[in-house]
């Protein structure tokens, strides 16, 4: 686990606004020597934060960062949806991993947020690029009745909830969904969904719903992404505050999860269709043991992609498959 000492975290908070602070001022505020400030300042580059140091002026971040406001989020969610346990870190390996690491079954929803993921993950061991305070990284651990069998379509339901949240925030954003787990704008990837299972007991399963959503990412920070990507800053004129984006997304997700645990995906099919970027298109779907080509004809109430192939209709389930629009 990539950890940050409390003084490192305070240093980031003190420098977040991009203003110069002298070494002695920082040392006083942090209760450490100027030499220790220098040492800690050097470490920030490990987390992708570029620091400038100018003689006579002190230190500042090359780019100011807008940190999330976890206290606001905690109050906002308990006011609008339900009380949650909220865990916030500046830096973590993966918010999904944090959510999975909680022992036992959760008594109530738990939310995990981070400004940066050192080992953000996609499906099949792929990496999710998660530069510091550039994007939004969140996971919810949520208890669902009905066990594993009740989870069909969850990834699509999550996509609908995030797309609804973004549409509510930025009506001009033409957000779409690519089965089974991508958020797209004009064919470029804006975000992704990763569902993992934490454990099943007595007909109840704890799911971990992870969402990565790009906010404002530079080309340098996006190095390693091997497909077309985009971020909110490129797509909308008036970018909402990061905390506002996370608040809306969490609100929609928690409302959706409460409905999903009693009714499943079926009531969301028509809303999914509004965002479906795949329906009517020729696609290639690759799973561990086969590649299928055909025309996508929408999704069924249990979240399966309906594919018309040369050998007839097939119902495909998400999980470990990869879909490309031809
Ligand atoms: P497929 O399209 O094959 O089904 P996927 O794109 O859904 O796979 P995921 O595992 O969901 O794959 O996401 C990981 C992939 O997403 C990475 O391999 C990379 O191409 C891309 N990626 C990683 N980070 C980001 C990001 N911040 N924004 C957009 N795309 C990213």
TL;DR?
With 326 residues, the protein is an alpha+beta fold.
Structure keywords:
single chain; 326 residues; alpha+beta; Arc Repressor Mutant, subunit A; BirA Bifunctional Protein, domain 2; SH3 type barrels; 3 domains; seven-stranded mixed β-sheet; five-stranded antiparallel β-sheet; 14 strands; 29% strand; binds adenosine-5'-triphosphate
Characterize the structure shown.
With 326 residues, the chain is of the alpha+beta class. The protein has 3 domains: 6-61, Arc Repressor Mutant, subunit A; 70-273, BirA Bifunctional Protein, domain 2 (2-Layer Sandwich), CATH 3.30.930; 278-325, Roll (SH3 type barrels). Helix content is 29%, strand content 29%. The protein has 9 helices and 14 strands. It has helices at residues 6-15, 23-30, 34-43, 70-80, 95-101, 154-169, 232-235, 242-263, 269-275, and strands spanning 51-54, 58-61, 85-92, 110-117, 136-145, 175-178, 182-185, 188-201, 204-213, 282-286, 291-299, 305-309, 312-316, 322-325. The strands form 3 sheets. It has a 7-stranded mixed beta sheet with strand order 3-4-5-9-8-7-6, sandwiched between helices. Strands 13-12-11-10-14 form a 5-stranded antiparallel beta sheet. The chain has a two-stranded antiparallel ribbon with strand order 1-2. Strand 3, helix 5 (95-101) and strand 4 (110-117) form a beta-alpha-beta unit. The longest helix is centred in the last third of the chain and has 22 residues, at 242-263. The chain is globular. It binds adenosine-5'-triphosphate. The site of adenosine-5'-triphosphate (ATP) has 19 residues, from strand 8 and strand 14.
């Amino acid at each position: 686990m990539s950890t940050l000492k409390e003084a490192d975290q305070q240093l980031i908070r003190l420098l977040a606004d991009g203003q110069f602070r002298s070494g002695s001022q920082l040392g006083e505020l942090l209760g450490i020597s100027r030499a220790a400030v220098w040492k800690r300042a050097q470490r920030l580059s490990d987390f992708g934060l570029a620091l400038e140091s100018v003689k006579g002026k002190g230190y500042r971040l090359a780019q100011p960062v807008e940190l999330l406001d976890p206290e606001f989020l905690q109050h906002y969610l308990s006011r609008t949806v339900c009380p949650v346990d909220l865990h916030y870190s500046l830096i973590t390996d993966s918010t999904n991993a944090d959510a999975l690491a909680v022992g036992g079954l959760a008594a109530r929803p738990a939310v995990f947020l981070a400004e940066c993921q050192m080992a953000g993950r996609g499906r099949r061991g792929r990496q999710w690029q998660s530069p510091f305070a550039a994007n939004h990284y969140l996971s919810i651990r949520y208890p669902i009745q009905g066990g594993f069998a009740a989870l069909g379509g969850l990834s699509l339901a999550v996509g609908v909830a995030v797309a609804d949240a973004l549409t509510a925030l930025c009506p001009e954003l033409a957000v779409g969904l690519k089965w089974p787990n991508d958020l797209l704008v004009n064919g470029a990837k804006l975000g992704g969904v990763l569902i993992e299972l934490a454990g099943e007991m007595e007909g109840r399963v704890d799911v971990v719903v992870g969402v990565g959503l790009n906010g404002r990412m530079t080309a340098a920070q996006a190095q390693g992404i091997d497909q077309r990507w985009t971020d909110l800053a490129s797509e909308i004129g008036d970018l909402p505050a990061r905390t506002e984006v996370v608040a809306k997304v969490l609100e929609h997700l928690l409302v959706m999860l409460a409905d999903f645990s009693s009714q499943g995906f079926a009531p969301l099919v028509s809303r999914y269709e509004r965002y479906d970027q795949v329906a009517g298109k020729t696609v290639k779907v690759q799973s561990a043991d086969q590649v299928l080509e055909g025309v996508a004809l929408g999704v069924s109430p249990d979240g399966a992609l309906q594919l018309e192939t040369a050998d007839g209709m097939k119902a495909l389930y998400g999980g470990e498959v990869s879909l490309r629009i031809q």
